[in-house]
């Protein structure tokens, strides 16, 4: 079988490396595995098609910093899926996405979910650039209600909590959230918050109760 490319797996845990490598091979990719930052750097001569990087790598350099090194070496177009067993809160996911990750998974992960995330990351072609161009000309502007819901998502409210806050049904909120994801070109709520923040749709608010406020 002709290989589709190469996926780099960087994780200190052998079981996690093996599981991720198994998924990559099922998809027809060659796999490079590295248990540390040092061994991962030896794989940087050629850009991988995708990298799966543990956040809590041993040593002075974290997986977040290694991801940034990879992007400096080969550009932001290399998709990186961060995985973490400790930094699993929503704000950890948002931070990773803001720093350049394409996706973020908590460990232990389901192999089927990882497979789907890999396919989705590889299939996203220039989505970020398209979103920025659309945002610049206003063709994907969020409605006032969508901005309101985005604010509440950024504050950590769940779908049912947002529904109670806005006195509508959870199903209605779910529909609005799907519209927000589509307009921002993302596939998760954490990514929506991160992308909206990066595009200036939301900004830090240290005077109120939430982490973010919607920009005018």
Task: Give the topology.
Blueprint: E1 6-10, H1 14-26, E2 30-34, H2 37-41, E3 50-54, H3 63-74, E4 80-84, H4 90-98, E5 103-106, H5 111-123, H6 127-137, H7 144-154, H8 159-166, H9 170-184, H10 189-198, E6 202-204, E7 212-214
Parallel strand pairs: 1-2, 1-3, 3-4, 4-5
Antiparallel strand pairs: 6-7
Helix pairs in contact: 1-5, 4-10, 7-9, 7-10, 8-9, 9-10
Give structural notes.
- This protein is of the alpha/beta class and 216 residues long.
- The protein has 2 domains: 6-123, Response regulator (Rossmann fold, 3-Layer(aba) Sandwich); 129-214, Orthogonal Bundle (Arc Repressor Mutant, subunit A).
- Helices cover 50% and strands 14% of the residues.
- It contains 10 helices and 7 strands.
- Strands 2-1-3-4-5 form a 5-stranded parallel sheet, sandwiched between helices. A two-stranded antiparallel sheet has the order 6-7.
- The longest helix is centred in the C-terminal third of the chain and has 15 residues, at 170-184.
- It is elongated and about 55 Å long.
- The chain starts with 5 loop residues before the first strand and ends with a strand.
- Mean pLDDT is 83; it is low at 125-130 and 205-216.
């Amino acid at each position: 079988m002709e290989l589709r490319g190469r996926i780099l797996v960087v994780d200190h845990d052998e079981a996690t490396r093996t599981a991720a490598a198994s998924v990559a091979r099922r998809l027809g990719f060659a796999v490079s595995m590295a248990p540390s930052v040092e061994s991962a750097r030896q794989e940087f001569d050629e850009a991988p098609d995708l990298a799966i990087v543990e956040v809590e790598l041993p040593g002075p350099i974290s997986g977040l910093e290694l991801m940034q090194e990879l992007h400096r070496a080969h550009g932001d177009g290399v998709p990186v899926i961060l995985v973490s067993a400790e930094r699993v809160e929503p704000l950890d996911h948002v931070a990773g996405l803001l720093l350049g990750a394409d996706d973020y998974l908590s460990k232990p992960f389901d192999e089927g979910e990882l497979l789907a995330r890999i396919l989705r990351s590889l299939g996203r072609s220039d989505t970020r650039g398209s979103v920025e161009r659309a945002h610049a000309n206003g063709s994907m502007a969020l409605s006032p209600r969508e901005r309101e819901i985005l604010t509440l998502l950024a504050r950590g409210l769940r779908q049912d909590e947002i529904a109670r806050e806005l006195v509508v049904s959870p199903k209605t909120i779910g529909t609005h959230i799907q519209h927000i994801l589509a307009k921002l070109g993302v596939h998760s709520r954490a990514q929506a918050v991160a992308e909206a923040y990066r595009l200036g749709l939301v900004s830090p608010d240290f005077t109120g109760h939430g982490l973010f406020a919607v920009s005018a």
